[in-house]
Amino acid sequence: MESFTTPLLTGTSTAAILLIAALGLALTFGQMGVINMAHGEFLMAGAYATYLTQQVVTNADFSVLLAIPVAFAVAGLLGLALEAGVIRWMYHRPLDTLLVTVGVSMVLQQLAKDLFGAQGDPVRQPGWLDGSLAVLGYNWPYTRMFTIALAVAALGGLAALLKYSPFGRQIRATVQNRDLAETMGISTRQVDRITFFVGSGLAGIGGVALALASGTNPNLGTTYIIPAFLVVVAGGLGQLRGTVIAAWLVGVVTAFLTDWFSGSTAQVVTFALVVIFLQVRPQGLFTVRTRGLA
Amino acid sequence: MTGPRRTAAPARVAGLLRTWGGLLGIGLLALALLVVAPAVLSDFRLGNLGKYCCWAIAAVGIGLAWGRGGMLVMGQGVFFGIGGYAMAMHLKLEAAGPGNVPDFMVLYGDGTMPGWWEPFRSGAFTLVAIVVVPAVVAAVLGFAIFKRRVRGAYFAILNQALAVAFATLLVATIKQTGGFNGLNSFPSFFGYNLYDPVNRRMLYSIAAGLLIGCLVLAWHLQRSRFGELLVATRDAEDRVRFLGHDPANIKLVAFVIAAVMASIGGAMFAPIAGIISPSDVNATASILLIAGVALGGRASLLGPALGALAVGYGQSALSESFPNQWTYFQGALFIVVILLIPAGLASLPPRLWAAATRRTRAGTGGAA
């Protein structure tokens, strides 16, 4: 039982971080066609925001909670700057956004190295995350539960925003038919900007969870960007439920494989599984029905 | 305005240039690399140029797959690595001598050699493997991806994930591949002592010659029916399908050729650089190859190769004196080139030429 529940639980908390990272990507990649390779660096920015918040507010119990909105704002503003400075010139060239953001990610990574040093900085755990809860004969560490709760909150918040808020309606309208939305008086430029802000901000929240799990590190984002993209690809574009299920599957499958093989073999096998999966469903788990050719 | 008789001669020159200009450019590059460079450069600089040539060989393939075929191949480091490691394994076994085991296996492991190393004792097998293994890997992967019409961003991301997975695997299998340190210190190359500068110059000439060969092949492919189909697939895949061709096969061929070129580049890189390690083949290395191609001009003939040579030179020159600034420069390179000159430097002369002729024409028009 132990050998089964442990990977299931660690996998689920890995999946939670993947999910937060992938939500932002799904929003910008799935809905706007922008492939943001600097998204991983927004995770890193969230982690450093957590670290800096702790330097200012020394009470660890409170500072982590404060770090969540701070990290959201920091990563969101970075995203906004990226959109305003670079992305908005190339909405019609999706593959090129990938290359440009690779350049941005290199710059941000080196900037983090120069500002904070190549070594990572530790982030203090708040007292209320010490210990674990015993359920089903297994101890759930509170940090893992916190990560999962954060992911659920981020998902719920995003879903509510898209579904119920006037702004969410504007996003959906812009995605479905940009020209028509424009005609109806929606400022699609404004929608693009805010979508980018929210998507990048979500990565910042993921950074808080990462900082609690493993501290900060200039290379933090690079580890997560490719798995997060695989999640988006396997989940299907523009589908929140697909992203959720794919994140959970990738997280748990990787955890089980890591248990059976080594960590690196698990990565390779996960990659192979995603390629095989795309053989069955080239458009991902859930697809928007279109009359397109592919 | 000028009469038809006076435009005839320039038009004929332009036509000839269109047909043979590519070959002329390759000839000039061959002259520079094979005659001028060995005459004026020191052994050390020539060795560095040899390394850049290896990257340029891979870049020619990327130009074909990405520039002509529209497939953003972000994982060419994998194929570069397959060639590099295959060659390095042979050189390690050559250094160890018949029946012996490479030194690092004694150092990291229990001194036994995995079975799949054994065939690489044969030089002929290694040379065949350098071409066949990447071709088979690319064919299987490409078949799986293209037949299911996975393309665009999906293809690019899968490709990059492959590079990440490959590098991770190399680091982890330290007993078989030397892990993070990779394979290094090769004393000889097919019997030629590599401590002898003459032999190192020979190695450079082989790399430069292979680069020219790949360029000639690319020139030929560009003019062929296949080259036209490839560009057509890039620009309007569905139309190509409606005309009765299978775009998957066309892309597959370009992908396989690109993979083999990357592998050849890697195979020459290992003995010239004296090392092949995961950092030469990982996601960052793969992306650096893309940077050169983008800079030079992805869809042009000479652009990818010249861009790769320039990026290689820039990396050496800048990272020697400012190791950190190189990263900023590299990032800025991507942003500026993709944002402002997406077709690369190769697109600038024609544009300037067009702008200049437009001005003179406007000038003569005004005078008349």
Features:
heterodimer; A: 294 residues; mainly alpha; two-stranded antiparallel sheet; 11 helices; 75% helix; globular; B: 368 residues; two-stranded antiparallel ribbon; 4 strands
Could you explain how this protein is built, in words?
The complex is a heterodimer of chains A (294) and B (368). With 294 residues, chain A is an all-alpha fold. Chain A has helices spanning 2-32, 39-56, 60-85, 94-116, 142-164, 166-176, 178-183, 188-214, 220-235, 240-260, 263-280, and strands spanning 132-135, 138-141. Chain A has a two-stranded antiparallel ribbon with strand order 1-2. In chain A, helix 5 (142-164) packs antiparallel against helix 8 (188-214). The radius of gyration of chain A is 19 Å and the shape is globular. The N and C termini of chain A lie far apart (44 Å). Chain B has helices at 4-40, 43-68, 76-96, 103-108, 123-147, 153-172, 174-177, 197-223, 225-235, 237-242, 247-273, 278-281, 283-296, 303-321, 323-340, 348-367, and strands at 183-184, 188-189, 192-193, 275-276. In chain B, the strands form two sheets. Chain B has a two-stranded antiparallel sheet with strand order 1-4. A two-stranded antiparallel ribbon of chain B has the order 2-3. The termini of chain B are close together. With 368 residues, chain B is an all-alpha fold. Chain B is globular, with a radius of gyration of 22 Å. The chains are: A mainly alpha (294), B mainly alpha (368). Chain A binds chain B through residues 29, 35, 86, 89-90, 93-96, 98-100, 102-107, 109-110, 113-114, 222, 226, 229-230, 233, 262-265, 267-268, 271, 274-276, 278-279, 282, 293-294, and chain B through 72, 141, 144-145, 148-154, 156-158, 160-162, 164-166, 168-169, 171-172, 238, 283, 287, 290, 294, 324, 327-328, 330-335, 338-339, 342.
